[in-house]
What does this fold into?
Amino acid sequence: MELVLALVTDLHFGPEASFGGKLRKLTAAAPSLARAFVSRMNDVVRPDLVVNLGDDIEDEGLEEDRARYTSCVDTLRGARAELFHVAGNHDLVYMRPPDLLAAWRRPEITSLNYSFELGGFRFVVLHTREKKDVEVTVGEAQIRWLAAELAASRAPTVILMHHSAAEQDLRGNRWFEGSPHICLVKERRELRALFRQHDVRAVFNGHLHWNHLDVIEGIPYVTLQSLIENVDEDAPGRPAAAHAVVRLTPARVVVEIEGAERSRYQIDRAS
It folds into this structure.
């Protein structure tokens, strides 16, 4: 039994946005890069499942964000696979949860944290909430919900979230070096304790705009680079075009990150 999962994150449809006076996000290329991702999924990879890990937009205003978010989701809907979404912090600057849920067009999903099963695996989506420049949290109510969700199923589980639950070394990260409070979840130790108690096989997130792997007590925590990250130092730039293809089996997790900065991770389950 193998399930093929494709991941994409931080597409940032919207206006150009510099950081530190340099062009870091190639937002103008976001629609064409998203279409290229969908084409590769349909023509080459043919995954069972596509998950969008959030930050679909470069927030600007309510009406602009609604239009761009819908455009991004509609583009991803072109993939001939099951499609699920994670809410990112940029997505909720002006929009509210009902706006995102309406764009997802999945009436069975009524909350930004939810779960589903596919191909013998259980997927749990967490909603990490960012208070700008202060902290990232999931909150006690969601931790209680997570504990109940993990206890309710014996299926191998994959966690999907926008921010990271690992203890990442942020040195060299052009966005978050010295700022763990706005990229790592405040309750991450509590989350990891729950993951250890249950059959969690992998945890995936976006947000940090780089590729990164931590293996903590046998569980891989994988951060995926932004689709539109500029891999050059400044303009005109080259897009990362990053996406991941994950092959899940009962014995192994294989992650192949495609794009300008490719990586491959393999984690075998201890017998």
The mean pLDDT is 96. The first helix runs from residue 30 to 45. Helices lie at 30-45, 62-76, 97-104, 140-151, 188-197. The first strand starts at residue 3 and ends at 8.
